[in-house]
Amino acid sequence: MQKFPMTGPGLQRLEDELRQLKSEERPAVIRAIAEARTHGDLSENAEYHAARERQSFIEGRIAELEEIISSAEVIDPSTLSGENVKFGAHVRLIDEETEKEAEYQIVGVHEADIKSGRLSVSSPLAKALIGKKPGDTISVPAPGGDRSYEVLNVRYG
Length: 157
Hints:
The protein is built from 3 helices and 7 strands. The chain is α/β, with parallel strands linked by helices. Helix 1 packs antiparallel against helix 2. The mean pLDDT is 92.
């Protein structure tokens, strides 16, 4: 079984989602299916079909989360140090064209959320950042052409 690197908070978010699906969502959809069955002919019952689709989604997501959680390898970024970018690092960058600064944490594939500043370790930007240190410049392919960034700061924890 392949192990996936993940931060502790990322694993906790997935475990919380799994617990919520099992303890709240699954029982609610079972009740919705039971309620829809009381409405008669199942072949023409839209509520029943919608509830069954929702149940299928929930069961699939539960199975997916259980597999991800069982194959997670938790890495604590606070135990890491150095000035080179590696998994768990918080990296502050500046876009050399627009002069906009951004900060990202390099995290596991299953916990990435760009809106929250969590960048997947397998993304093109993260791959370009790995091993770099403050002052280094990277070039990343983008739909509108290559983008250049300068690494301003690297911190852990």
